[in-house]
Amino acid sequence: MKELKVGLLGFGTIGTGVVKLLQQNAEVIRNRLGAPVRLLKIADLDIETDRGVKLEEGLLTADAEQVLSNPEIDVVIELIGGYEPARSFVLKAIANGKHVVTANKALLAVHGEEIFAAAADKGVEVMFEASVGGGIPIITSLKENLGANRFQSIFGILNGTCNYILTRMTNEGEEFAAVLKDAQQAGYAEADPTFDIEGIDTAHKLALLVSLCFGTRVDFKQIYAEGISSITSLDIQFARQFGYKIKLLAIGKMHDNGSIEARVHPTMIPEHYPLADVDGVFNAVRVTGDFVGPVMQYGLGAGMNATASAVVGDVMSLARSGRGNGEPRSYGYGCRPDALQELPLRSMDDICSQYYLRFTTVDQPGVLAAISGKLGEYRISIASMIQPERRDDGAVPIVIMTHEAAEKDMRAALAEIDQLQIVQSPSHLIRIEGSLD
Amino acid sequence: MKELKVGLLGFGTIGTGVVKLLQQNAEVIRNRLGAPVRLLKIADLDIETDRGVKLEEGLLTADAEQVLSNPEIDVVIELIGGYEPARSFVLKAIANGKHVVTANKALLAVHGEEIFAAAADKGVEVMFEASVGGGIPIITSLKENLGANRFQSIFGILNGTCNYILTRMTNEGEEFAAVLKDAQQAGYAEADPTFDIEGIDTAHKLALLVSLCFGTRVDFKQIYAEGISSITSLDIQFARQFGYKIKLLAIGKMHDNGSIEARVHPTMIPEHYPLADVDGVFNAVRVTGDFVGPVMQYGLGAGMNATASAVVGDVMSLARSGRGNGEPRSYGYGCRPDALQELPLRSMDDICSQYYLRFTTVDQPGVLAAISGKLGEYRISIASMIQPERRDDGAVPIVIMTHEAAEKDMRAALAEIDQLQIVQSPSHLIRIEGSLD
């Protein structure tokens, strides 16, 4: 096996992790591959900041062309993030016959088809293990090891920021706003945390996973994404009383009629599931295939080192594959482009779920009858209920767990209930996944 | 990509699963690969039994040579199990230039070096994802995705029979013998369960994992293996009082001085770890690398379908790799043969651990002082203790959790304690792993 030469675009946190890993573990990598991986060039607009790694003279440049058009470079690692110039750079690298390794889920969720098609035309690979779940090898597992399965469902905890916040709210009884502030100070949340806490980052990742699992195109904009900013510690406490934990879950499902679900929202899952014990900045994915059954993977979902591990793992895979014969080892979406389907995505109206509902009502007779009556009108049946003691302000929380119901009916019922005089503030709804298969 | 032609040796449970999978999911496999996988020949001594799958005329033969020496066959799948004739057949397939896919951990744990060397000489691959953890893609993860890491430790629940028995003992308070009998009737345990319950199967798998993680030869016979037959439901209950669950754990560790640990025994792990929630016939592996941090994978550890998924996943990987260029995609132990080390394996005497100890004593003053005195003589310090009420027979159980101590000291102390007049039956010892990194 011959030396593999790589160029790096983007020398931020993850890029620095990749350089450190290639330096510190050069011997490990050479022993596992039988040949070294050599970093030929790093391009970043900022060539001044000290990243704490020692570089050979001339390695760092502000000119991306020195990576993209360097005839010696076999593999371009894209760690710029975002849509542009990442998209143009990746397309140029492909056009120049280079394999690409990227951690950029936003880019692939939105421009994946264009990029994968360009790679297939050129006979090069686009590897993106680092784009979902950090160090968790879920992309390779779906494309390769579990590739003989028809997948039924995939569930993921894919955003470390959200999981960190929910974990602290769960363990410490703190409210969302306070924990978010702490997380920002500790570096676990961005100054503008919208992408993370509103579920957009998770939806980017889910778009990729759903395409890989079900062999279908997914329009990222059609994925329902609801974040965690409305979760209260009160809901977390009630969930525990029923034996559940609340996680921001990415959910993908394949139905017998060939329609699929792809949605992101806070979800109550039974606390005895291993997925419920995935705490802090950890990520996890659970996928169920027709032969393999359920498989779960768990690891650090982000961070310099775990992401670098996934990036370099992809580089090593490229070193092993039959590079240069013009035949890519695998397809972008893990499936022949002409076999990629256009499976219909169910609208949220048409999904069925169990629900956790929390109402804030006045303390007077007939309240429960009024609420349960409205639910009944929409064929929503109650599985269990908690009505704790009245609070100081005279408001009474009523918590109801329903049997499975249609989202359309649930929303209609809640709209009517929220109009009732006895209801003091808008009702809270959290979907429940009682079984993860 | 061209059609891949495979031959199958062994048409038992797993073999039948492979045939079913190749038939039922032929389209999925073709779409993911871009080319079909075609089964050309199946060899088994029993060509009469109906396995419930329909085969083309002439596919099944009692003559292994029709697989091994068939010039059309690219890949030989070995699912015979055991040492011979599996070893001879695998070596012959390699000599004939065929890639090999096997689920045979016993074969590789004992004859792996010979087999991998033969494959390297011939430029063919030996794939064995199915040999450890059934459908869990741990082998590929260690060799490829996480391959840039130096691994610090690996922990595995690798035997479904043992985990099923321990789970039922935990959930139902039943004793080992009763649950084993049930498990045998339900088909979760063999008529002769020794290999499983005494930890030998787990040790076979650990030998492979340790070689892959640490890049070292391991003499399987040197691995300490202690099974679960002496675990009582009383120990399980006490463990829970301290916040632990008992699992049969395979443990591999790398020490800073380059020595390694490889041991299999019942182990108490904190119940809030995801690994502690791995119940029933599920398997799980947790590995920690210097960059990726901890990664856990979880899935069905055995059974026709999950194992078949792993076997066919390996076949698909071979279809993707640069077959035919005489350069294998990866090394058997995931590391250049000349870089494979001879790291010293620590003897059990030299390991350090926390311990759970249960003594059965007479009910009289001074008992605790005598026991704790003996422990103190050997520098073993007590972390916590439970002494429940005396039992009907007058015996008093005393349960002690120790701080970290040397195994050598612990055994010496217990030998002396068991000689004391006040001790009524041999003391029970279970090792504790309080942190899995």
Mean pLDDT of chain A: 93
How would you sum up the major sheet of chain A? Answer: 11 strands, mixed
How big a fraction of the residues of chain A is strand? 15-25%
User: What is the correct CATH architecture of the largest domain in chain A?
Assistant: 3-Layer(aba) Sandwich
Could you give the distance between the termini of chain A? 42 Å
| Regions with little confidence, pLDDT below 50 for 5+ residues of chain A | none
Helix content of chain A: 25-40%
Instruction: Specify the oligomeric state.
Output: homodimer
Predict the CATH topology of the largest domain in chain A.
Rossmann fold
Q: For the CA atoms, what is the radius of gyration of chain A?
A: 24 Å
- Indicate how many domains the architecture of chain A comprises: 3
What is the CATH class name of the largest domain in chain A?
A: Alpha Beta
Protein name (chains A, B): Homoserine dehydrogenase
Family (chains A, B): Belongs to the homoserine dehydrogenase family.
Pfam families (chains A, B): ACT, Homoserine_dh, NAD_binding_3
GO molecular function, one term (chains A, B): metal ion binding
